Structure formats: C-alpha cells, structure tokens
Amino acid sequence: MPENDYHALLRRAREQLPEDISRASRFELPEVDVLYEGKTTVWRNFADINETIRRDESQFFQYMLRELGTSGSVDGRRAMFKGRVVKKNIEDKLASFLDAYVYCQECHSPDTRLVREGRTTVLRCDACGGHRPVAVRKAKRAAPEQKALQEGKVYEVLIEDIGKKGDGVAKLSNYTIFVQGAPKGAEMKIIIDKVTGSIAYARPFVE
Q1: How far apart are the C-alpha atoms of 21 and 172, rounded to whole Å?
Q2: End-to-end CA distance of the chain
Q3: pLDDT given for residue 119 in this prediction
Q4: Range of the domain at 165
Q5: Is the pTM value of this prediction over 0.90?
Q6: What is d(CA 42, CA 76) in angstroms, rounded to the nearest whole number?
Q7: What is the CA radius of gyration of the chain?
C-alpha cells in the first residue's frame, strides 16, 4: 500500500473515533510536587492534580490521609501532611485512588464520572459506556488534635492494667503511659519522665 494511502486511512480512522476517547488520550496527570517544611510534608500541586482527575476534593484528601496514615489539612491549593511523608508513598496512594475511583476497568479511560444510582455510587465511563459500583467513604470531620504530653509535667490518670515488667499502664489521649510501681485501678497523679513517640514513662507524683 502506498504510504500516502496508509496515512489517509489512518487519518480517517482517527476522525471516526468517538470524541470522548480522543479527549481521554489528552489526559495528562501532573507529576507530584512535594517539599518539606520542618516536620510537615507539603504537596504543592494537590489542587492541580485534583482538578485533572475531577473528583470531590474532600473525598480525595480524606482517602490520602487514611492511606498514608497521617493527619493534615488543605491550605489553598496545597495539601499539608503531618510528618515527613515519602514522595513515593504519595505517588503509590494516588495510583491506588486512580485505579479505584477514576480509571474505567473496561477501556482504562480516565474520562469517567461518579454518579449515584439509588444508594450505590457508580463509576460510569463516558468513553465506552462501562460502569461499575465503587465504595466511596464519606469524608469525616477531623478529630481535634490531642495535646502532646510534656516531660516534667503532672497529669491525673487511671491505672488500667499492669505491664510485663510490673509497671502500671495508663492511657491518656493517644499515649500509653508506664508508671513505676503503680497498682491497677488506682487514680493518681503522675509526672512524665520521658516521651518516645506514643509511649511515655512516668512515676507517681508526690506533692
């Protein structure tokens, strides 16, 4: 076949493609842009990516928080995560979100919409007409952040259990506190000696 005839056939074939498929081929996801400010991870182009995938910002952000196992907030066009989150982890969780809530399983097009059909949320593809149910979790209000325990400060606790080494075990906010020589069931004042992550070590406070 002459080369000119081949290109003419290819051009006609492209012209006959549905508009939705042609538009899907132009889907370009921006590269995740991350920087670190102290102990905070800043996803600088969060809004740009959300606008590209055309999903509810709150649901998208809450999904990322759950999957990354952290807390955070949206600041303008940026997403802020507590702690230093590795960029590769953000990219992996984003890819998982796309597979679950954006890409069509039939034709792999990103030109999809989340629609409600009765009580079911359905991912409907505008390119091939395919559809499938998805489980979209509603965004929850972030719980107020608990104050960190401070070494040298006094707290009132209930000794709920006894640890393997014989120390009393108390719970306060998100912390597990080991209290030297404290008996189970005692309500007492303690002074914090050391805090390591979500674990604290204390002793009974004597006034």
Answers
A1: 55
A2: 98
A3: 86
A4: 154-204
A5: no
A6: 12
A7: 26
- Residue 151 is encoded by which pair of tokens? 């070494």
| Tokens encoding 28 | 């370009």
Tally of structural domains, the chain? 2
List the structure tokens of 197.
Answer: 């992550």
Question: What would the pLDDT profile of 194-205 be if each residue is shown by its tens digit?
Answer: 998 889 999 999
Kindly report each contact of residues 48-53 with a partner whose C-beta sits within 8 Å and lies 24 or more positions away, as own/partner: 48/77, 49/94, 52/27, 52/28, 53/29, 53/97, 53/98, 53/102, 53/110
Same domain, 129 and 158: no
CB 74 within 8 A of CB 61: yes
Looking at the fold, whether 182 and 113 belong to one and the same domain comes out as no
Q: Would 148 be classed as within a structural domain?
A: no
58 has a pLDDT exceeding 50: yes
pLDDT of residue 176: 94
Compute the Cα dihedral for 10, 11, 14, 15 and give only its sign: negative
